[in-house]
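Continuing from the previous page of notes. For each protein in this section, the sequence appears first, followed by its structure tokens. Read the first protein now.
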Amino acid sequence: MNLIVQGPDIPTPSLKQLAKLTGAAAIEAVSRTAFRLLDADDRPRAEVAAFCEAHQLDCGWVPAERRIRDFGLLVMDMDSTLITIECIDEIADMQGLKPQVSAITEAAMRGEIDFAESLRQRVSLLAGLDQSALQRVYNERLQLSPGAETLLAAARAAGIKTLLVSGGFTFFTERLQPRLALDYTAANTLEVADGKLTGRVLGDIVDAQGKADWLNRVRAELKLDRAQVIAMGDGANDLKMMAEACISIAYRAKPVVRAQASYALNQVGLDGVIPLLGLS
């Protein structure tokens, strides 16, 4: 196995300590924020995890034979994963309702309430809001997570298709698709009448099962095996989707998601996914 160690600032003594702990054959710089410990013994996994947590480092065990070109599909959540905000919370802020909506969002992301019901509750609070608020959120508040464009460029270079699947809204996914050259997107559609939000969602809600179904639909269309799929998210409604992938990545995620993911990234940006996919 190779041990990937990542962080905004990785002291050399920490790398040497991890190399000693795992009997690694060599330490190889992958990027400014990532190092690969070659031929590391993975038996002391718990000790390595504890050391990295104590020193605010991300770590992940990667089979030495893994190659990024082994994969064919990268599936991503949108809110608080590909982008830094929860769009519905920012839309609600235009109504002066951000605290109420954010509280429901947080409970849903922790898995404490049903996602579809939480979405209906939150969207109902937006009734009467002018549709132009959506464009304001996109223009003024939506930012890509650090490293997002680097990750997507690496995926394209390796021939990996991309699916952005969100419990959020098509207004945002449809604008991000051409901007980021994404291959597929899926999300919920807000009903609009006379230029204002009605407080309702059209059609079936893209919830946890809906995300998993989209992953499998696109995977089947591309004629890929589960072993060729990567999925990443941050909330409880991403867990079913992540369970359908060979590699699941919890990005700045809730504890329930970190506990079930193949890897967790808490210290670095989305470009931290790249070293976990193996050698180029």
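Done with the first. The second protein uses the same format. Note its length before scrolling.
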Amino acid sequence: MTNHDFITLQVSDGTAMEAYVAVPAESGPVPAIILLQEAFGVNGHIRNIAERLCQEGYAVIAPDLFHRTVKRLEASYADFASVMPHYQALTQDGLSADLKASYDWLQQQPTVQPGKTGSIGFCLGGRVSFLANAVLPLSAAVSYYGGGTDTLAHEAVNLHAPQLFFWGGKDVHIPQEKIDTVINAVKAAGKDYINTVISYADHGFHCDERASYHPLAAREAWATTLAFFENRLKK
């Protein structure tokens, strides 16, 4: 296996899942991050984020969450219709199994530091990153504009690590009441969190391949993300 390539993992439900991995070349154990895709697949944007995190000294794995219905989908950002059948086929049990397979692979790598794993996700992946924090013993988790996270609010009591949330104030897909549902559940559960609403940003603001890309918001959120990970995975 090269340090930057797709690998195949066996999932507990008997399915085979491909995942993109990016592992720093230097020797010595490094912390790890599970990177969770948008609804458009483990595409160039997601692989670029994997490389950026790898350059910061993290071993990264980005699982193909649609693997039960399609292999390595990379859909156009203008064609959500083609994504819908695969998006709708996702289940919490399936996602939990995918997350555990990804986590287990990381823990088996001699270059990965045990007990220092985080997650980060965008769009669909933002919701899955919240789930990851509930089903895995993570040290940090980050969710960017995770649509549908409110449907997982009941999992707040199971969060293992502090959760960093980013939302776009102009995002009509995720109204304030849905954000409130998530944050109030985390607060009621007594879990640590940071909740950041960027008033001038829309859904997908971090992705430079989307029309909604907001360079300033992306830079500011990324700087916060790196500090959050460094403080919890490298200290």
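What the second structure shows: Residues 215-233 form the longest helix (19 residues). The helical segments are 44-55, 84-88, 92-107, 124-135, 176-188, 215-233. We return to this in next week's lecture.
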